[in-house]
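WARN retry 2 of 3 for item q-0093 after timeout on previous attempt; input resubmitted unchanged.
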Amino acid sequence: MTAITLPKDLEAWAEAEVAAGRAESVGVLTAKAVAGYRRQLALLRESLDAAEAEADAGDIHTLEEVFAELRAKFPDEA
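OK item q-0093 returned
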C-alpha cells in the first residue's frame, strides 16, 4: 500500500468523518475519494471523445454549449 499524506485541513476533515461514524477509516475514505475522482475523470474523457467524434462528423457546437454541458455533468467542479 502506498502512504499518502493529506493536507492538514483534509486530514482533519477525514478524521472527523471517521469519529462521527460516517467513514470506516481515513484510508477507506481516501480510497473512495480517489475512486470517485477516477470515475469523474473517465466521464470527462468520454465526453471529450464524444465531442471530438461529433466535430469529426460535422456536428459542431459553440464553446458556450460545450461548457454548459460540462457544467451540467459536473456541477461540483464549477
